[in-house]
Amino acid sequence: MRLRGIAVVGTALVAAGLVCPVSGQATAIGARPVLVSPNTPRPGERIDVTVPGCEAAGSGRRWARSAAFTGTVTLTGDDDLGVGTAVVRRDARPGVYDVTARCGDRTIVGGLKVSTKRPWPGLLPTPLNAQIADAARLKG
């Protein structure tokens, strides 16, 4: 009986997580996105910045900057993909920040949403959750 209660509570928590996604996911804004990983950066966290379609034509310089970053990020990578690593400022407040990427003579503007909240734990079953689910199935 107790396992069934745990399963019900677990199901409710998962459903709530799907209905109300975690605030603080990094999002791209604009036609040419600026991708950020991990997708829920917090202040002080190191993140990967990827800019598809960021060719080094013209001046050949590629960089990205944001008020959320500790400094300007140099983008490297293939001719059509700019990649770099940034650090979110420790004093960055939760909210949306512009991310400007310079790709040769072109400018790509995206966005980043920073949060101080921790992300939900993975939704994949852990060994303990799998044991609980198996026990609940056996009890019927």
From TrEMBL:
<protein>
    <recommendedName>
        <fullName>Ig-like domain-containing protein</fullName>
    </recommendedName>
</protein>
<feature type="signal peptide">
    <location>
        <begin position="1"/>
        <end position="28"/>
    </location>
</feature>
<keyword id="KW-0732">Signal</keyword>
